[in-house]
Specification:
about 110 residues; alpha+beta; five-stranded mixed β-sheet
């Protein structure tokens, strides 16, 4: 693994959380998008070389909504930059990690 690509944080309200992170980091969100296939709206912040992705559920049955219901707001995932994602997924599975998808998913 080459580096942490970004940290994903599940939030109840993107609007409210954007205001908090703007104050915290001293920058505004540089990208916002909706990923319909995942039932989520996202907002990205850059702080130095670090990226933070805020995730808000767009439906009550989305993975983010279920995560927040079970665990509350907070770190949802850490995305890693890797040379070969298929190799890394196989390697981690062999090491006993739970892999959510058998093949990598590309955001549209």
């Amino acid at each position: 693994m080459r580096k942490i690509e970004h940290i994903g944080i599940a939030v109840k309200s993107l609007k409210e959380s954007n205001l908090i992170y703007e104050k915290l980091l001293g920058v505004t969100s540089y990208k916002q998008e909706e990923v319909e296939s995942e039932g989520v709206k996202t907002s990205f912040f850059m702080s130095g070389p670090n990226k933070i992705e805020l995730l808000e559920a767009t439906s009550v049955d989305s993975p983010i909504a279920k995560f927040i219901e079970k665990k509350g707001e907070g770190i949802h995932h850490i995305a890693f930059d890797v040379e070969d994602i298929v190799f890394e997924m196989k390697r981690l599975k062999n090491e006993g990690f739970v892999i959510l998808n058998e093949m990598p998913k590309k955001r549209s």
